[in-house]
Amino acid sequence: MEHHHHHHHHHTHGATDLKEMKTAFWLNLSFTIVEFIGGLFTNSFAIVADAFHDLGDSIALGIGIWLEKYAKKKPSVTFTFGYKRFSLLSACVLSTILIVGSVAMMVKSVENFFNPHEVLSSGMILLAVLGVFINGLAFWRLSKQESKHKANSRAMLLHFLEDVLGWVAVLIGAVVIYFTGWYWIDAVLSFGIALFILYNAIPNLFSVFKIFLQMAPAKIDVQLLLEKLRSVEKVQEIHRLYVWTEDGDSHIATLHALVSEENLSKSDAIREEIKKILNENHIHNTTIQIESIKCCE
Questions:
Q1: What is the DSSP letter of 6?
Q2: How many CA within 13 A on the CB side of residue 241?
Q3: Using an 8 Å Cβ cutoff, are 236 and 260 in contact?
Q4: Using CA atoms, how far apart are residues 235 and 229, in angstroms rounded to an integer?
Q5: What would the pLDDT profile of 96-126 be if each residue is shown by its tens digit?
Q6: Could you tell me which of 160, 167, 224, 234 has the C-alpha nearest to residue 197?
Q7: Planar angle of CA 185, 191, 194, nearest 5 degrees
Q8: Can you give the pTM of this predicted structure?
Q9: Neighbours of 175 (CB within 10 A)
Q10: Measured between alpha carbons, how far is 204 from 113 in angstroms, rounded to an integer?
Q11: Using CA atoms, how far apart are residues 109 and 130, in angstroms rounded to an integer?
Q12: CA-CA 20 to 30 A from 233: which of 41, 184, 251, 267?
């Protein structure tokens, strides 16, 4: 009964998260259209390029929402662990788009630095203020999520952080251009922001790869865990301890505990003690096999 209640509680948060993601998606898509029109009006290639970048963001967010919904499906005969890792696939796609977009932005920034062209700076200032507000709102809404620590949500938050910082740079650049006519400033700022996003997106992608490669969760010290499990009363040895994570949030462990022949009757108490230690380490999906030390000699 208790387990069912916990699952329902998580599902409610999941529905809220999905709602926030959809809001962020529509905000992003609407503003992309505004950007295309505004970029052509102000003759600012930086804004038009950012509109293409935001269009990519919108597509990635759409994929993210679809995969996040898919990840909540119940386990099936073919996907016995369930579909939680589909949200990781989404994080992988989002992070890759971020990396590719940042590199493209850096290349374009270098070109713009050496070949600056005249832009309508007053129009850029208005668009930049709107950009900071819209993307800031999307970032704030997503950051309120219960599961913001999950890989998929982290990648999405990075997208909006990139956009907010990008528009702050455009705003600063446009104000300076308005007063000085130094068109190259925008190129310098956009290059710096692209570099910052790259610095954040690459580790995010690697953390997804680690989960796919079945690495033990970074927050769990497996050696220390093993020592704690071995110290359980009546346990002689622990072997075949496997610890991994489904999606960076739900952790799993399987192990064999060896006990003496006369202690086999106390298997249930030993199992409960082991489960308690695993739960303290945020591992709630466990398979514990109690074996007689005789059978393994």
A1: H
A2: 20
A3: yes
A4: 8
A5: 888 888 898 889 888 888 988 777 889 999 9
A6: 160
A7: 140
A8: 0.67
A9: 16
A10: 30
A11: 22
A12: 251
